[in-house]
């Protein structure tokens, strides 16, 4: 082992409004450096909830994949995706396809799945001209800041995600389930507590109820953990929402969220959640070669609107399964 690799890592720089930033001198072998400093890096992620590593000089997908494997081990497969991604290597993906001029609001990746990643890994190969930061927010603090009456209701009921799969908007059946075979999709839904209905035109609609608040697997602390605001109709740009409602109807939106009892979530609630996230947001513009590690339970992340070319690769690791994910009672139906 290289002695330079084994030297103690410095502590991350801490500045208000920014994620912790660890500045390193670009090693000759970034994957080896990452693997040999894994425990120290993960220790800083555990301490801060997220860590931006600057100076690694990441430039190619193969290099990024090797770095991520050294840090996170076996990747979590991207299933039930709400937007398409490109596969860039084993367990390595492009960012979700999403209009550059529209932000992806704060959320916890795949928080609507029974099994979800505990660790998110991002690498910037090409920084955008302006904007495009992958910002982060502390889920414990967001939970504390939201009105108690609201969070208590979500803790009692959970939250409901409804989806309508079509060939025009959002992820296709193959992109979400890895297959178009109806029998295989039905098995997946039953195995993962997803209620499903095939429409006369062959499209699929699903419902799944999940916890909105979970305990961190290591600290036991309660975290606001969901995609209630991000996947809600009121987070969409007004003209996009109007178009989708006009074309698909209120009940046919590609995705939407409700209270756990099925009641609609009002625009005021969605705005309140997003405003609370903004109050706790930490952001730092990407630089080419950066790596960002995010504790997916303790820390929400977003993608801000941008101009220019932006290439950020993503991997997910350390699968977690909450003790109680509010499974859908029906367990699936035709």
UniProtKB/TrEMBL annotation:
<dbReference type="GO" id="GO:0051213">
    <property type="term" value="F:dioxygenase activity"/>
</dbReference>
<keyword id="KW-0560">Oxidoreductase</keyword>
<dbReference type="Pfam" id="PF02668">
    <property type="entry name" value="TauD"/>
</dbReference>
<feature type="domain" description="TauD/TfdA-like">
    <location>
        <begin position="31"/>
        <end position="315"/>
    </location>
</feature>
<dbReference type="InterPro" id="IPR042098">
    <property type="entry name" value="TauD-like_sf"/>
</dbReference>
<protein>
    <submittedName>
        <fullName>TauD/TfdA family dioxygenase</fullName>
        <ecNumber>1.14.11.-</ecNumber>
    </submittedName>
</protein>
<keyword id="KW-0223">Dioxygenase</keyword>
<keyword id="KW-0045">Antibiotic biosynthesis</keyword>
<dbReference type="InterPro" id="IPR003819">
    <property type="entry name" value="TauD/TfdA-like"/>
</dbReference>
<dbReference type="InterPro" id="IPR050411">
    <property type="entry name" value="AlphaKG_dependent_hydroxylases"/>
</dbReference>
<keyword id="KW-0408">Iron</keyword>
């Amino acid at each position: 082992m290289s002695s330079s690799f084994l030297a103690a890592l410095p502590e991350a720089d801490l500045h208000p409004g920014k994620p912790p930033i660890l500045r390193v001198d670009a090693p000759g072998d970034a994957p080896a450096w990452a693997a040999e400093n894994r425990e120290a890096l993960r220790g800083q992620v555990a301490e801060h909830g997220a860590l931006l590593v600057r100076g690694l000089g990441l430039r190619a997908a193969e290099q990024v994949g090797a770095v991520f494997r050294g840090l996170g081990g076996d990747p979590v497969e991207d299933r039930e995706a709400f937007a398409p991604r490109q596969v860039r290597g084993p367990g390595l993906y492009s960012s979700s396809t999403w209009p550059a001029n529209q932000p992806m609001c704060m959320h916890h990746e795949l928080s609507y799945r029974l099994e979800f990643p505990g660790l998110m890994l991002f690498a910037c190969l090409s920084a955008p001209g302006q904007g495009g930061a992958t910002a982060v927010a502390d889920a414990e603090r967001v939970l504390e800041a939201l009105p108690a009456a609201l969070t208590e209701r979500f803790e009692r009921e959970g939250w409901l995600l409804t989806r309508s799969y079509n060939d025009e908007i959002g992820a296709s059946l193959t992109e979400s389930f890895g297959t178009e075979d109806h029998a295989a999709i039905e098995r997946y839904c039953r195995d993962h507590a997803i209620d499903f209905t095939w429409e006369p035109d062959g499209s699929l609609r699903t419902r799944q109820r999940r916890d909105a608040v979970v305990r961190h697997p290591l600290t036991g602390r309660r975290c606001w953990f969901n995609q209630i605001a991000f996947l809600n109709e009121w987070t969409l740009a007004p003209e996009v929402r109007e178009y989708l409602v006009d074309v698909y109807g209120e009940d046919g939106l590609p995705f939407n969220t409700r209270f756990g009892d099925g009641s609609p979530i009002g625009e005021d609630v969605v705005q309140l959640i997003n405003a609370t996230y903004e109050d706790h947001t930490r952001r730092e513009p990407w630089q080419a070669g950066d790596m960002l590690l995010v504790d997916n339970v303790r820390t929400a992340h977003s993608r801000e609107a941008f101009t220019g070319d932006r290439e950020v690769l993503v991997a997910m690791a350390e699968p977690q399964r909450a003790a109680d994910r509010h499974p859908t009672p029906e367990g699936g139906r035709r």
